[in-house]
Amino acid sequence: MPKFEIYTDKGGKYRFRLKARNGEIIATGQGYLTKAGCMTGIESVRKNAVDAEIVEIETPSEEE
Questions:
Q1: Which domain holds residue 43?
Q2: Which residues pair with 17 in a beta bridge?
Q3: What CA–CA distance (Å, rounded) separates 58 from 31?
Q4: How far apart are alpha carbons 6 and 19 in whole angstroms?
Q5: What DSSP line would sit under 3-61, residue for residue?
């Protein structure tokens, strides 16, 4: 089963990563000051990613 893992980084901030069934990391979250904030971030991903559209963004070349 896919799973969210919560951990603390070297700076002491809470972070999450979403792992696929095969154990590969498929998404990571930003650093949060509190565990509750991290949990809110996870819930936001769960809620908002269901209907998220895919948009391709063209990046300008370095010459421009």
A1: 3-48
A2: 5, 28
A3: 27
A4: 11
A5: EEEEEE-TTS-EEEEEE-TTS-EEEE---BSSHHHHHHHHHHHHHHSTTPPP---PPPP
- Alpha carbon distance 11, 57 (integer Å): 32
In-domain check, residue 17: yes
Q: Mind listing the pLDDT tens digit of every residue in the chain (64 residues)?
A: 999 999 999 999 999 999 999 999 999 999 999 999 999 999 999 999 888 999 998 887 666 5
Q: Are 2 and 23 in contact (CB under 8 A)?
A: no
* Spatial CA neighbour of 14 closest among 37, 32, 39: 32
